[in-house]
Amino acid sequence: MKKTRSLLTVLIIATVFSSTALGQDVMSQYAVGKIYHSNGFVLEGKNIRMSMESVTFEVMGQDQTLPLFEVSQVMVKKGKGRRFGKMCGIISLSLSGLTYLTSGGKTENEAGDEVDWEFKDFITGTVLLGGLSYGVGYGAGLMNDPWEVVYLKRN
Known about the structure:
Elements: H1 2-23, E1 29-37, E2 42-50, E3 54-59, E4 62-67, E5 71-77, H2 80-103, E6 106-108, E7 114-116, H3 119-143, E8 148-152
Antiparallel strand pairs: 1-2, 1-5, 2-3, 3-4, 5-8, 6-7
């Protein structure tokens, strides 16, 4: 019983640490964006990184850098899809692990009899449920990720 309780404590602590680590965000890095050049061109890219002097973005696998004095506006999406997907997947895996640990590896069959829960069945179900949870979280994150203006040159 003590072994199960200590395993449960370690699992809860690991879940808390991983969820706080995923929640942290670098303010000057964004998933995708549109960079409006001062001469009228609109450039679209991903992995947007901004500093006080320039904006760097990836187009077709190549990094492009523009000084901010040539940019009139930068609009970005923060990439909430991946972040929400990771969180939903981690929560799902944690809950499945807690269920397995607290049940002691036992489950009920259709007749209501208590039987051993085979570990390979547990892993298969956990992976499928984690993948499904990631997909649901990814979709929810995409729907809640609007375009935001992070830089606007005032004339």
